[in-house]
Design brief:
Layout (H helix, E strand, L loop, with lengths): L1 H23 L2 H30 L3 H29 L3 H6 L3 H20 L1 H13 L4 H19 L3
Helix pairs in contact: 2-3, 2-5, 2-6, 3-7
Amino acid sequence: MFMNLKFAVSLGLTLLVLRLPALALDPDKQAVIDRYKQPFTIYLEAIKDLGSALDTVTSDSDFIRAADKFCDQANKFVDAFNENKDQFAESDVVKSMDSDPDSKKVMDDYLESLKEKLEDAKPIFDHLISSLNRRHDSPEINRIRDRVAATFQRIQLIYM
């Protein structure tokens, strides 16, 4: 019994120590970080939905519907990201985060996690592109090709 209690206390302290940087953040800085994460949640969900939809596509219309839905969600992500970028462009809180090691650590950890999730999504994008390439030309398929290309260009622009 004592050994279990000792283990539970040790585990609890370890978890607390590992979370201290996030707990130590100024509430304003944490709010900015949380706001920054929100659009990426939309994008990651869009990717997940696209992967699921592509796995069940049985016709061109299913494919078009899946690609359109992805583009709608991905464009919402870009809009939300750009809105946050504009809102916080001259923010003193954001500027102060550059010199705050705890803020940098939280953001670096999140960005590393995000990078891994986006790398994991590469097969979904490969599936989308190969599906686009396999489809015969039609006005709707050509529209989707153009729309997917435009959406990916918008996403690329946020990294510049």
